[in-house]
Amino acid sequence: MKELTSDQRRAVVDHLLLRVVEAPCKLHHGAIKEVAQIFGRNRHTIAEIWKRANVSISAEGQTSIGCHDVASQKKGIVGRKQKYTDLPARIRAVPPQRRTTLQRIAHAIGIPASTLKDYYKRGLMVKYNSNIKPKLTDVNKVARVNWAMKFVRPDSNFQFADMFDYVHVDEKWFHATKIKSRVYLLPGEVPPHRSTQSKHFITKVMFLSAVARPRWDDAKSEWFDGKIGTWHFTQVVPAARSSRNRPAGTLELRPVSVTRPIYKKMLLENVIPAIKAKWPQDSTRSIVIQQDNARPHVPTWDESVVAACTSDG
């Protein structure tokens, strides 16, 4: 626990002065304990500060107060000298692959883990989270730069395009239920019971979302939030066999595998009509549907998609 600063020590005296009940400087019962709880310190620490202040209050209406300085007398670097002065060199000699935990580092350099933790709190080391990066070749890097350069507009002092004419589509998996869930209950309420045959076979469905940059729609005099829509890849099929939950032939909603024909059908029946319905009418630019390089995605020259996009002009 860090020691109290000079300002905190003076604040302790101020709090205690508010709890003086009579001259010369008598505190009410429990005053030191109250201040100790406020500053998170032991009552003996607060008592020593009050004793060092040596407050004197005149009896004539308590208008004259005398108090000694209670600022910390420890200046500069104080405390015992560090036992391990060569820790940076010893830690640097340990390969980064072995520096995953403080316990492993302490074992590698031969000091207690608790001691190394103290040095870590003093700022000897910093924690860094390492994430896997894509391994790019020179050809990949050049392709990325060329793709980014397509959005540079030479006619506007080489500024990047605002991308107001782009609609970004992407897929994401969602599970039917979560393995862990949090719920707040009142006293006496019974927690909801959740069960499944196996947590490894929870139904998951792929969704497709389309978004664009938000902007002001002058035609409707309202804010266009850029949310085109979200759709799920499912189909309604009759149950092939009877079970204890439903007889055979009952219509069920089931997820489908996303293939190129399924994805193409989603574009033609949902995404493109939604863009035409929600897109600001005052925009005269050609709309571009931006997708990643997933295998089910349709090529840019697909005749059915081009015809659906240009059907209304």
Describe the structure.
This protein has 313 residues and is of the alpha+beta class. It folds into 3 domains: 61 residues; 51 residues; 138 residues, no CATH class. Helices cover 30% and strands 18% of the residues. The protein contains 9 helices and 14 strands. The strands form 6 sheets. It has a 4-stranded mixed beta sheet with strand order 11-8-7-14. It has a two-stranded antiparallel sheet with strand order 1-2. A hairpin with a 3-residue loop joins strand 1 and strand 2. Helix 5 packs across helix 6. The chain is elongated, with a radius of gyration of 35 Å. The mean pLDDT is 87. This is DUF7769 domain-containing protein. GO terms for molecular function: nucleic acid binding. InterPro entries: DUF7769 (IPR056671), RNaseH_sf (IPR036397). It holds the Pfam family DUF7769.
